[in-house]
Input
Amino acid sequence: QVQVVESGGGLAQPGGSLRLSCVVSAITGWIYDMGWYRQAPGKERESVASITSSSTTNYVDSVKGRFTISRDYAKKMVYLQMNSLKPEDTAVYYCAADTSLGKYWGKGTLVTVAS
Output
């Protein structure tokens, strides 16, 4: 059973930083794209950042210049470094992995930005 597990959420002050981590385990197939999504209260889930198997990255405009996605292919992990956090970044952050077996999602980790 493929598992996607996020970690690293928590409380940060405006202007602060957090680093999210995500690991994909129990997979025998290939992992293609990996990405981070978020869902704020009362809003739809949106794509925040993604990284392809060739390390091409993409970001939603609202986080460009503040968030950085990276990937460790050997460890099957993806990271999201979040700097200059804003209250509007508050959301549940989900990791997703596109694999040869299908797309898998984590259960999410809560990020709260407040003073």
